[in-house]
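ERR on first pass: missing label on line 2. Operator R.T. fixed the label and resubmitted. Corrected input:
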Amino acid sequence: MLKVDNLNKEALEQISALLDEEEPSASAARKWLDADEAAGRRYRQYRRMGEVLRALPEPEITPDFANRVLKRAGTTRLSSAFLRVFAAAAAAVVVATGGCCSMRKGL
Amino acid sequence: MTPVEDWELARHAAAGDNSAFTALVRRYQKPIIHFCYRMTGSLPDAEDIAQEAFINLYRSLGRLRQASAFSTVLFCYARNAAMNHLRAAGRLRRRLAAFEQAQGDPGARAARPDDTARAEELSAVLEAGVSVLAAEYREVFVLREFQRLNYQAIAKIVGCPVGTVRSRLARAREQVRAYVATRYGEDWC
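pass 2 clean. output:
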């Protein structure tokens, strides 16, 4: 972080929060911005940064993005269903095998 | 669209209604991909991460609780997927190299005299400044500056207290500002 003025960490947090309308003591902070040249300039710089960044062109999303997600979701659902069936079948085999073993022991 | 309506769709989707899940994907694909794009600097990567986030959400639909806005929950999934992506070995370095190559050297273009050119240069420098932020600062910066989420929502998404969001955001802004100042001087605005 460049040290170019006397704004400390708390001051920078206050300026940042004021910009976001998240500063509890906003009224006092605004008076401070009006009175302190360095604080006021920092506020304007932070605000300008946001404005410029939000004006950037947004990337074009691939038109079939949603379809790709839905296709994969369908595969996921089938996989889950398969796993459930497989687990149930495996459990049935275990039970059946256990039963056979018990019967043999009984014989 | 209110959060309740989003959750209504989520409940239908959890019950197997594909059209409800489709509606959620179409409704949120843009902000989620844009968030991922700002985190990675690559649209193909952003779409892959967003897809991962939607699929993870889909798998969890039956277990989700309506404790906050649906968008907050979805951004949480996107954030986790993006952070996993960024943690992968070498990705960050490649992303920065690709970004710098795409942008060229912003400083080299700083001598262009007209206002439009200067605005374009400032955009490029700012984007570069955001791209070099550490991931923990970049995520709060992107969620606030691009997605316009409040501190409480950001805190839920990144899993930290509101006070930490406040301090990380201030630090991120200051680092981006300092990055710009190294090219334009302290009085750039």
